[in-house]
Amino acid sequence: MNLIIIFISAALINNFVLIQFLGICPFVGVSKKMDSAVSMGLAVTFVMVISAAVTWLIYHLLLVPFDMQILEYVSFILVIASLVQLVEMFIRKVSKPLYDSLGIFLPLITTNCAILGLALISVLRDYSFIESVIFGAGAGVGFTLALVIMAGIREELELAPVPKHFKGAGITMIIAGCLGLAFMGFSGLI
Amino acid sequence: MPHKKHTLLQEFLKGIWKENPILISLLGLCPALAVTVSAENGLAMGLAATFVVVSSSIIVSILRKIIPPQVRIASFIVIIATFVTIADRFLAAYYPDISSNLGPFIPLIIVNCMILGRQEAFASKNNILRSFLDAVGVGIGFTLVLVVLGGVREILGSGTIFGIEIMWSSFHPWAVMILPPGAFLALGLMIGASNWLNELGEKK
C-alpha cells in the first residue's frame, strides 16, 4: 500500500515537472513534437529507475559506512553521468531501433535535474531500496505524462493566434502554469 | 557570438540583460521557478549560484589548456560539484533557515545548465579576466531575475516583501502566486514583458 502511495504521489500529486519544478529544461526544449516527447519520456523513465537503484546502493553501501556523505553530490553526479553513457552503449548493442529513437536524447539526460533531484530526494526521505526504485518509476511516469500533454498542446498551438511577445517561451510557461493548477487537483487523491 | 571581441565592459554587461540566462536563453529555469516564493529565497539562490559560476569559471579558465577535450564536460561537472558542496556546507552552517528553505535546490545547482553552459561556451575558451567578468555578469543577471520574480510572487502571494508587510490591510493575498502554478504564470508574464521592453528599446 505504501509503495502504491509513493508511486501515485511521485507521478501525479507531486508531479516532478509541474509541481516540483525538476527537469524544466527538457520540458521546455523537447516538448515541441509529440514523437520526440514520447521518446524523451521513455529514456528519462528508464534512466531514472536504474539511477534510483544505483545511487541508493552507492549511498548506503559506500558513503554511509565510510562516513563520507560530504561526497554525496560529487559521487552522485559522476555515477549518473557514467550510467547514462553505459545505458547508451547497452541500448546501441541490444536494440538498434530503440537506440535510433532514444539516441540523441540520452546525453541530454545527464544534465536533467530531475535525475539528480530524484537521488537527493530519496536520500532526504530515507527511502528503502524498493521504495527508491518505485519512487524513480513514479517520477519517470509523471515526467513522461507532463511532457506528452505539453507536446500535444504545443502542436495545436502552432495554429493559435498567440500575442506576439508571448510566442515561444512565454506562452509555454503560462500553459505549464495552467497544467500545474490542474495537477494540483490530484492532491485530494490520497 | 560575434567574431569581433567584446570590450571588457560589454563582456560584463551582456549577461545582465542582452543575454540574460533566464529571460533570453531560458537556462537555469528549475531553481528560478522552485525557490522564488519570496524575494529573500530568490536572493539567496541567486548569490549561491553566482558564487558557483564565478569560482568555477575561474578554475576552468585556469585549467582550460590542461583539460583534455574528450572529458571536458565530466571535468566541468566535478569542478562545479565541488563548489556547490562548499556553498551548501556554508549555508547550512551560517544560514540554516535559508538552507532548509531551499532544500534540494542547492545541490541541484550542479546540474543548472546556465553554469555548465558558461563553462562550455565561455570559460573554456577565454582568459581568466574575461571569464571572471562574464561569470559575474551572468550571475548578476540571474540573481536580478530571481529577486524580481521572488518579489512579485511575495507581494501578490503574501502581501510582504523581504518579510515586511506592505499591502493595505484589506488586501487578500493571491494564494496561487506562492503555489507552484504561480511560478509558471509569473515567469511567463515576465518573459513576455521583457520581449516587449526589448522591442520598445529597438524602436527608439
Briefly say what this structure is.
The complex is a heterodimer of chains A (190) and B (204). Chain A is mainly alpha-helical and 190 residues long.
Overall body shape of chain A: globular
Radius of gyration of chain B: 18 Å
Please tally the helical runs of chain A, counting DSSP H or I stretches of 4 or more residues: 9
Helix content of chain B: 55-70%
Structural summary, described in words:
The complex is a heterodimer of chains A (190) and B (204). Chain A has helices spanning 2-13, 24-29, 34-63, 72-94, 96-102, 106-109, 113-124, 129-157, 169-184. Chain A is an all-alpha fold and 190 residues long. In chain A, helix 3 crosses helix 4 (72-94) and helix 7 (113-124) runs antiparallel to helix 8. The mean pLDDT of chain A is 85. Chain B is mainly alpha-helical and 204 residues long. Chain B has one domain. Helix content of chain B is 67%, strand content 2%. Chain B is globular and about 60 Å long. At the A-B interface, helix 2, helix 4, helix 7 and helix 9 of A face helix 2, helix 4 and helix 9 of B.
Secondary structure topology:
The complex is a heterodimer of chains A (190) and B (204).
Chain A: H1 2-13, H2 24-29, H3 34-63, H4 72-94, H5 96-102, H6 106-109, H7 113-124, H8 129-157, H9 169-184
Helix pairs in contact in A: 1-8, 3-4, 3-7, 3-8, 4-5, 4-7, 7-8, 8-9
Chain B: H1 8-13, H2 29-34, H3 39-63, H4 72-94, H5 96-102, H6 113-123, H7 128-158, E1 160-161, E2 164-165, H8 175-178, H9 180-203
Antiparallel strand pairs in B: 1-2
Describe the structure using short key phrases:
heterodimer; A: 190 residues; mainly alpha; B: 204 residues; two-stranded antiparallel sheet; 67% helix; 2% strand; globular
